[in-house]
Design brief:
Elements (H helix, E strand, L loop, with lengths): L26 E3 L1 H18 L5 H20 E3 L12 E7 L2 E8 L10 E3 L3 H6 L7 E4 L2 E12 L1
Parallel strand pairs: 1-2, 4-5
Antiparallel strand pairs: 3-4, 3-7, 6-7
Keywords: Elongation factor, Protein biosynthesis
Protein name: GreA/GreB family elongation factor
Pfam families: GreA_GreB
Length: about 150
């Protein structure tokens, strides 16, 4: 019999659902980031208490596993003093002649549209450890970044 006529069920033709990938490295978070993770876990636990269709239920369970892992592995970092660019600081700088303001936060808290980038991003790594007035290399240019100001988030 041809394989075309053999069908075990609809599930065999669906795309497999994989776990949400955990970013490599430590799970550094700000106090705000930890609160966001905690709120996401509570939100998903409440959602799982509701009657849900199987695909929605499975997706919510997968999301909950991810956020519970992030909750357990979260390492809340102390608030920086603002003397150098570090995790949890907001930095004002010139990049290619344009002034930008970015906060350096954890992977799950990052929101580039809101001016928050992950500490693991290439731009964040280029900024880390710098002081006000310093010129930094980036994208092959030795003086691509000029640090204007450093504040706590």
């Amino acid at each position: 019999m041809s394989v075309a006529f053999r069908r075990e069920g609809d599930d065999e033709h669906l795309e497999p659902k994989f776990e949400i990938p955990i970013p490599p490295g430590p799970n550094l978070v700000t106090a705000r980031g930890k609160a966001l993770i905690d709120a996401k876990v509570v939100e998903l636990e409440v959602r799982l208490a509701e009657p849900l269709e199987e695909p929605v239920l499975n997706a919510a369970k997968r999301d909950l596993r991810y956020w519970q892992t992030r909750q357990v592995t979260a390492e809340v970092q102390p608030e920086p003093d603002g003397s150098v660019i570090a995790f949890g600081t907001r930095v004002t700088f010139l990049l290619n002649g344009k002034e930008r303001v970015l906060g350096l936060v954890g992977d799950d808290e990052a929101d580039p549209a809101a001016g928050l980038i992950a500490f693991s991003a290439p731009l964040a790594r280029a900024l880390m450890g710098a002081e006000e007035g310093e010129l930094l290399p980036f994208n092959g240019r030795e003086d691509a970044i000029e640090v204007l100001a450093i504040d706590s988030l």
